[in-house]
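User: Fold this; tokens only.

Assistant: Input:
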Amino acid sequence: MRIARRQPVVPWYAATRALMLLLALNVLPYFNRGAVTGDVSTYLGWINGPFDQGKYPVDDQMWQYPPGAAAPLLLPHWLPGSYYVLFFLMCLIADIAVFWMLLRAAKRADPDKSSPAGPWLWTLGVAAIGPMAYGRYDLVVTAFAVAALTVTLRSKRSTAVARGVLIGFGAFLKLWPAAFLFGAPKRRNGRQLVGVAAATAVVPTLALELFFPGVLSFLTNQKTRGIQLESVFATPFVAGRWFGWSGGVTNTHGAYEFIGPGVPLAGKAALLSTAVSFAVLLLIRRRAAVRGGFPFPAMLADVGFAAVLVAVVTSRVLSPQYLVWLLGVAAVCLTRRETLMRAPAWLVLAAVSVTQLIFPLFYHTLRLGQVYSGMILIGRNAVLVVAAVLALRALWRATGKALDGAPAPASGVLFGEDRGHRVRLVQDEGAPLGGELGGGGAEHGPESVVDGVGGPGRGGADRLVEGD
């Protein structure tokens, strides 16, 4: 653990995680025990019921996970001891793994002066969610996602394959890591990464469908979801209740959703917004493609963060565990000083900071339509929307035409800034890496921006992952 030495964030991380574990284990009292153990109790019910009978809980509308979710849910069951305690410890181990990978990624990005921003964001963000983070299996999925964004092996092919495997397995556990594929590079590396990710996710899913018919029901269960109370598209109804909107709130799919006039239309608007946002990301990808494609692996985290962020913002559901996803990917972005996602990442942390106020502290009053809790929720969601807009804007500007009217380079692209501080794609023919993320000044030379150990000791590993 030499990477963790002399890191001021480490004792703060250790203190917050010790407190969270004590709260999760009920050694210290938490003001809403059900918020911590509710989902774990649901998992245990599935294990003692359908899973023990050799079946998936496909008849339960609350089962809305890919079939790979069974692995982290069953693992604590297979070990001796209390399921609750073992589940919390599994999540703690995943949390620690993410933190270590962030420290390592920051050190590799700049060996001389690594950025502490990523580890700090993770430390503060998960602490703001509190012990609820240990009561969902999303930390396990986030650990695979962070690994997919940070692993670097000995060659470009092995790196692309490894990242593809991790993305695919993450999607096999919970779909959202598949959003990273928006940032896949062009040509061979990109084809390998996308192909391996697809195979890793699809092949075991189809195999399980053969042996356990109905495991794909999570897709149809999602179709019946309404507008959950905490989602961005619930905002008109949260505010509408203050002015006499005639709808109400009902508990369905294990969450509180709005019912009443305008709700079906809002659901369609949410799906349309998701489609439009993904179309914008595809257009951004196309704009980058004519300039050589997204630099790999530098931009995988930035584009992946933007994709996950817009998916969360436009979703009909926005539970606290969704914020864990955003924190993990945002923290990876911040391990690199040259990231385009700095402002959106910190805005996500600001939004996460009020999580426990919304749920569970004021959730009852929110369901009843109280103004003060509704204002907190609307403010949180507004910050997330601004973060999503800024993320897309940064990628759009970075893939725009050169300001001086020069033709866009076909390969060997870097991200930089012009004298007017507008981000764009620029060519750096002298850069040996042929496609890393850099700044616009002399201080951002190839040695300081490589996605590796840096200096003569890098060998060929990180050079090989950059180009085709």
